[in-house]
Amino acid sequence: MEQELKKLKEDFERDLAEAKSGTELETLKVKYLGRNSRLAELFSQIPALSGDQRSFWGRRLNQVKKDLAAAWEKATGSTDGQQESLDVTFPSSAVNSGSRHIISSTSQKICLIFQKLGFDIVEGNEIEDEQHNFEALNIPLEHPSRDAFDTFYLNLAEKNNGKYLLRSHTSPSQIRVMQKNKPPLAVISPGRVYRPDVVDATHSFMFHQIEGFAVDTEINFSQLKGVLLCFAREFFSQDVNLRFRPHFFPFTEPSAEVDVSCIICKGQGSKTKTQGKRCSVCKGKGWLEILGCGMIHPKVLEACAIDSKKYRGFAFGMGVERIAMLKYGIDDIRLFYENDLRFLEQFSL
Ligand code: DAH
Fold first, then answer.
1. How many angstroms is it from 102 CA to the middle of ligand 1?
2. Which of 34, 44, 150, 232 is the least buried, fewest Cβ under 10 Å from its Cβ?
3. Residue 30 placed within a domain
4. Which phi and psi angles does 207 have, rounded to 5°?
5. Residue 215's closest CA among 325, 342, 154, 304?
6. Domains of the chain: total
7. Alpha-carbon distance 174 to 231, whole Å?
8. How far apart are CA 190 and CA 317, in angstroms?
């Protein structure tokens, strides 16, 4: 038996020295210390021995088992009962989670306010044709206002509705919705628009707009004013006021540009009432332009086969970047597009 134990120990030591991985060590443990090991077999022979022999070999085998186990543990660096130290209360390493871009969240906030007022959200097409982007909106080919909008044309085969282009405003959504649906309608339509503008602190060749409009038999301008005032107070603050300045848009008549009382100086034009320093946000004017609006031009309704004698509509359009810049005091539109996390993370809540 002693001979056998000697060989067992030698084999074990050789195998242990050769074991390279944790898996190999585990296999080794099963082979030499497991239930079917040679050692276990020797243990099973002990009851058959006589008294003295039994206690001698019992102690001897236990000693060998202990030695093997100790050598194995030394090799794995682990000790039984404490195989792994895992503290489940230990704070985890922080995972950086993403969040909505400031333009997306601003757009969503605006849409949600109008949704609460009963407007449906409809996404239009980013690729439009001349018919929807211009003609149906009463912007004929020779119209001077088309210059500012004449934008990125696409190399797609022209169909009945003229050339394809990246839309220059979200107003074509009005046409698409009115051509497909009968009034009453109340729709808000957010999305990207493209203009041939040189990029600077307040301009970009691509930006975001939100279009809104309502069509029914009894729609009037005071409803438009009420809806926009409700939006401005919900979005900026309850104490803001609006100012409507007469303006021209081909697709509305009458038309207006809308200013909100400056959210920084509260329409005072100065930073504080007492100091009288010029407010840097509204440049001392007390007002900030936020959108264009008006009553939908009868020609636009007719272009969508809606009887302009029976139905009226109001419409408005605003730039999301501009609104976000005013609300959060951002002074350069390029910050939105540069993907600088130091800027974006400020709005990640
Ligand atoms: N489409 C106009 C623009 O891009 C914005 C606008 C003005 C939309 C007046 C309207 C509106 O619906 O009634 O400058």
1. 22
2. 44
3. yes
4. -155, -175
5. 304
6. 2
7. 20
8. 10
Q: Of ligand 1's atoms, which has the minimum distance to the CA of residue 174?
A: 12
In this structure, which residue's CA is closest to atom 12 in ligand 1?
Answer: 316
CATH number of the domain enclosing 118: 3.30.930.10
pLDDT at 264 over 90: no
For residue 249 and ligand 1, the question of a CB distance below 6 A is answered with yes
Hey, CA dihedral for 226, 232, 234, 238, is it positive or negative? Answer: negative
Place of tokens 């970047």: 321
Helix (H) or strand (E) holding 29: helix 22-33
Domain boundary among 61, 76, 91: 76
Please state, rounded to an integer, the average pLDDT across all residues of the chain: 91
Q: Say whether pTM exceeds 0.90.
A: no
- Strands of 15-140, DSSP E: 120-121, 127-129
Instruction: Estimate to the nearest angstrom the gap between the alpha carbon of 315 and the chain centroid.
Output: 28
CA 164 to mean position of chain CA atoms: 29
Query: Which pLDDT does position 129 carry in this prediction?
Result: 95
* Cβ of residue 252 lying under 6 Å from some atom of ligand 1: yes
CA angle 269, 272, 278 (to 5 degrees): 40
What is the pLDDT, as a whole number, of residue 244?
98
- Amino acid identity of 200? D
